């Protein structure tokens, strides 16, 4: 028997149509979710890499300007090895020529620069950069500090001694007899993490002023 011209859809046809639309919608939603997750993952990876590259570049730039005063020879370089929760979190401070100046103080050519960790919050350890536009006896004090990132998992700094037998040292103090003056070079090993991935960066910076005291 033929269906009339005004006959509607049967219940089975409606259920089949709903099932087809559900499958299509589920597929589209799955593709969209995967695309969004992939995009977010790529963005997070790029953000972490950008932070790592900036940090290495900033430290390298500062170390290349590390120096004592040309006439008086005044200046210091201090590096301390430290371990926190099983990971190296070293710090170092030195005098350098720099273009950064603060406030209304005189525009001096030399300043103190330091990199260290602020461990006030165990869940969010901040990697800090400090700069002071006045030279003091304590090269690791004073000035203005700001946080670079909270993604540092490990920072390992080593210093190449001026004497052949010294090799790479874990600590440095320009006022000690064994490590007087500035090191020949500084080795930097940096690991960043965002909880999902880790990025490793390393470089060796040769200091131009290591021969001066």
Molecular structure report:
The protein is of the alpha+beta class. The protein has one domain (49-206). Helix content is 25%, strand content 32%. The chain is built from one helix and twelve strands. The model has no long low-confidence stretch (mean pLDDT 81).
Query: How confident overall, as mean pLDDT?
Result: 81
Major sheet characteristics: 6 strands, antiparallel
Shape: elongated
Strand line-up across the major sheet: 7-6-5-4-1-10
Termini separation: 108 Å
Question: Mind telling me the C-alpha Rg?
Answer: 29 Å
Short synopsis of the structure:
The protein is an alpha+beta fold and 213 residues long. The protein has one domain (49-206).
Task: Summarize the helices and strands and which ones pair or pack.
Blueprint: H1 11-64, E1 77-80, E2 83-84, E3 87-88, E4 91-97, E5 110-118, E6 126-132, E7 144-149, E8 152-160, E9 168-169, E10 172-173, E11 185-193, E12 198-206
Antiparallel strand pairs: 1-4, 1-10, 2-3, 4-5, 5-6, 6-7, 8-9, 8-11, 11-12
């Amino acid at each position: 028997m033929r269906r009339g011209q005004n006959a509607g859809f049967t219940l089975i046809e409606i259920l089949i149509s709903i099932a087809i639309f559900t499958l299509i919608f589920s597929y589209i939603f799955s593709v969209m979710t995967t695309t969004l997750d992939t995009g977010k993952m790529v963005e997070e990876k790029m953000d972490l890499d950008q932070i790592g590259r900036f940090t290495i570049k900033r430290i390298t730039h500062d170390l290349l300007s590390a120096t004592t005063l040309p006439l008086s020879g005044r200046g210091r370089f201090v590096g301390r090895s430290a371990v926190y929760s099983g990971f190296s979190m070293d710090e170092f401070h030195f005098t350098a020529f720099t273009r950064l100046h603060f406030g209304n103080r005189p525009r001096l050519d030399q300043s103190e620069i330091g990199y260290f960790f602020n461990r006030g919050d165990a869940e969010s350890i901040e990697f800090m950069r400090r700069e002071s536009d006045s030279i003091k006896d304590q090269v690791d004090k004073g000035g203005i500090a700001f946080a670079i990132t909270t993604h540092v998992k490990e920072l390992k700094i080593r210093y190449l001694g001026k004497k052949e037998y010294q090799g790479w040292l874990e600590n440095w103090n320009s006022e000690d007899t064994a490590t007087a003056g500035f090191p020949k070079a500084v080795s930097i090993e940096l690991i960043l993490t965002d909880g999902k991935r880790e990025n490793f960066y390393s470089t060796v910076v040769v200091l131009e002023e290591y021969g001066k005291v």
